[in-house]
Amino acid sequence: MIPYRYAEATDPAEAVPSGARFKGYESFTVQDLKVEARVVCCRRERWVTPDGRTVIAPLPCGIGDHFGPEFKRFILAQYHQGQTTVPRLVELLRTLGVDISKRQVVHILTDANAAFIAEAREVLRAGLVHAGWISVDDTGALHRGGNGFCTQIGDDAFTFFATTGSKSRGNFLELLRAGHGDYVLNDQAFAYMRRRSLAGPVIAKPAGHPTRHFADAAAWTAHLAHLGIAGLTVHPDPVSIATEGALWDSIVAHGFLDGTVILSDDGGQFNVGENALCWVQAERLIYKLDTFTDAARQAKERVRALILWFYADLKAYRLAPDPRCKAALRARFDRIFRRQTGFPTLDRLLARLHANKAELLRVLDHPEIPLHTNGSENDIRCQVIRCEISGTTRSENGRDCRDAFLGLAKACRKLGVSFWDFLGTRLGAAVTHAVPSLPQLVAARYAS
Asked: How far, in whole angstroms, is CA 187 from its chain's centroid?
């Protein structure tokens, strides 16, 4: 909240007639903003010691280069929260009287921001440890002129973005490690490999080896080569499945996703752990189905009406869970998705959706889970807009900073704190309210 500054109006608008009574003041609030360029010259004592060394007095606290914390906060907020392009930001700053180049603005946006990137990663870790559910999505992103993918992970308390060159299941599992680089082989890993139909003799090779922990990708790759798994050319790919199993066990070993449900739009890369699926995406498949006869159109609309009615009852169940309704809703699901409409394409689609019964009805056991991934789609829209405005990122730092700051801005909004104050607190600028560690706020949100 901006502090008030009170001013008293002493002169009345017109002459006050004799006999008038003073009735106090009537308030009229005016909001204003003062933006100006300031240049401060720090005169630092300089001494030369007898042995030829030069000793210079240190800079004031919070100053490390030729740009102050308020200036850096303005640039970071305008670029990441205001979605301003670098050329327009440079032009605005020069209009305000700042002597700065495009290269210097890019330097502020991409360099010396390791602390922000680390905090974004810690926010992810806090979410993965404490969240009862997370919603995930991905979208196309450009990096160094090539096609990549930005993955979103989050819930009502946090958001995390990561842009990579792949959207595979292995890539998603690597992101769920939240910065850890190890690979682990324990019961969770071998159970994962069996679920992915990896052959028993192949699983027996790592299971029979005494080494179960590998510090990095190089050590893990060397271990697969030593066991003779790397040279196998069968389906499914043993290297991919074994690696996914080791990644999943690493996630479990670090205490992530313990009982956490992963809500997605049925993308195969997100099919790990305990899953829930988006009902909006499921209904959209039927909505987009092409029909060419009146009978097919009537069948399609009849099924859509039944699904929307069922969806409304699921929303009511979330608000007031009743264990007695579970069996009735499960039976009703079967009646809708096992029906034969006489429209073959629709019947095949209904059978495909019925195969996802457990994931679509996960809400019956976890009423706190949303029925859709609208939250993820809303979160990831800022990444889409950023790519449309600025195109590709050109450096690893630039990519990581873009992901980190957009995720931190989203987390601040969800936690009810000011992104402006967050930047000011971290950079040492003046703030109305100091913002504590975001990972601590995320953890406290789940505890409340």
From this structure: 30
- Please answer whether residues 159 and 414 qualify as being in contact, where contact means their C-beta atoms are separated by less than 8 angstroms: yes
Lowest mean pLDDT among 22-36, 162-176, 400-414: 22-36
Is-above-0.85 flag for pTM? yes
pLDDT at 5: 63
Asked if 300 and 339 count as a contact pair (C-beta separation under 8 A), the reply is no
Q: What CA–CA distances, in Å, run from 129 to 40, 249, 415?
A: 45, 15, 17
Tokens of 10: 């002493």
Report the distance separating Cα 233 and Cα 143, nearest Å: 32
How many angstroms separate the CA atoms of 145 and 354, rounded? 41
Of 422, 443, 440, residue with least CA distance to 431: 422
Q: Hey, is 210 helix, strand or coil?
A: coil
Domain ranges of the chain: 279-372
In this prediction, residue 235 carries a pLDDT of: 87
What pLDDT is recorded for position 4? 61
pLDDT tens digits along 224-239: 999 999 988 888 899 9
The answer for residues whose C-beta is within 8 angstroms of residue 44's C-beta and 6 or more apart is 56, 57, 58, 59
Q: Cβ of 181: how many Cβ atoms within 10 Å?
A: 14
What are the b/e assignments for 374-412, b being 16+ CB within 10 Å? Answer: ebbbebbebbeebbeebeebeeebbbbbbbbbbbbbbbb
Tell me how far CA of residue 48 lies from CA of 53, 54, 60, 173, in angstroms: 6, 5, 21, 56
Rounded to 5 degrees, φ, ψ at 147 are -75, 135
User: Phi and psi dihedrals of 28, rounded to 5?
Assistant: -140, 110
Distances (CA, A) of 314 to 125, 260, 308: 31, 20, 10
Q: Structure tokens of 433?
A: 């309210």
**329 and 357 Cβ atoms separated by less than 8 Å:** no
C-alpha–C-alpha distance, residues 349 and 21, integer Å: 80
10 conformational bin, left if phi > 0, alpha if psi -120 to 50, beta if neither:
alpha
Contact residues for 33 (Cβ-Cβ < 8 A; gap 6+): none
Tell me if 119 sits within 8 A of 158, measured CB to CB: no
Written as six digits, the tokens of 312 are 């409304």
Residue 35 burial class via C-beta count within 10 angstroms: exposed 0-12, middle 13-18, buried 19 and up: exposed
In the prediction, which pLDDT does 34 show? Answer: 86
pLDDT, tens digit, for every residue of 19-58?
888 888 888 888 888 888 888 898 999 999 999 999 999 9
